Amino acid sequence: MNYDASFNRFSQRSALGIVFRDNEGFILAAYVYPNEYVADPMTAEAQACLQALVLEEDRSNVAALIKEIKERSRKFAEIIVRFAPRLANRMAHAMTEEGREFSVPAYWIEEVPIRVEEEVAKDQREYSVFTDGDVEGG
């Protein structure tokens, strides 16, 4: 799963872009979600992370396991979330750009908007460089 957010300080709007892929980098689903009254870029990124996790949990057939993982992770003093460089996350970023055109959430299954397809192709060529089984975003 990759996610990103774009933010417009003047309009206080953000757009979230989330992309789900299989272990070979093929698109499973894509999602854009516009938000209004967003305070700052950090809030937009936090909203994107939360929405990505909610969607991942909702679409998963192992939701009970994910819930248990979350509960158990609270017992640790530190949890590390890895940053995905823009190169690894440009597909989700392209989804945020597309999301600026929407006033309501939109979903795609096993595809992305046409304007994002070029980034998908680039990302699939370089996907193996960034995959090691971790969930990345941001």
UniProtKB/TrEMBL annotation:
SUPFAM superfamilies found in the cross-reference section: Ribonuclease H-like (SSF53098)
Residue ranges constituting the RNase H type-1 domain according to the UniProt record: 2-54
Source organism phylogeny: Eukaryota, Viridiplantae, Streptophyta, Embryophyta, Tracheophyta
Residues in coiled coil: none
Pfam name, any one: RVT_3
An MF annotation (GO) of this entry: RNA-DNA hybrid ribonuclease activity
Protein name in the entry: RNase H type-1 domain-containing protein
Domain of life, per lineage: Eukaryota
